[in-house]
Amino acid sequence: MESIENHISKDLADLEKAKRDGDAGKQAHLKEELERLETYKRNHPDEHKDPSPLELHCEINPDAPECLVYDD
Length: 72
Known about the structure:
Helix content is 64%, strand content 0%. By secondary structure, the chain is mainly alpha-helical. It has one domain (4-67). The termini are far apart.
């Protein structure tokens, strides 16, 4: 995706399609992804780039081992 706004729009459209199709698994996945994207956007209002899955994960789980940054 080019921007977080485009990613959110695409996920919302995909969620509506999944609802029409009755695809509960895809709905759950998209709802979780949208929650993470919206949290990231809320916490980084001046940033418009589409965050990576790791950035989304670390936004919600900053204490996870893969998110910790150590200064030497």
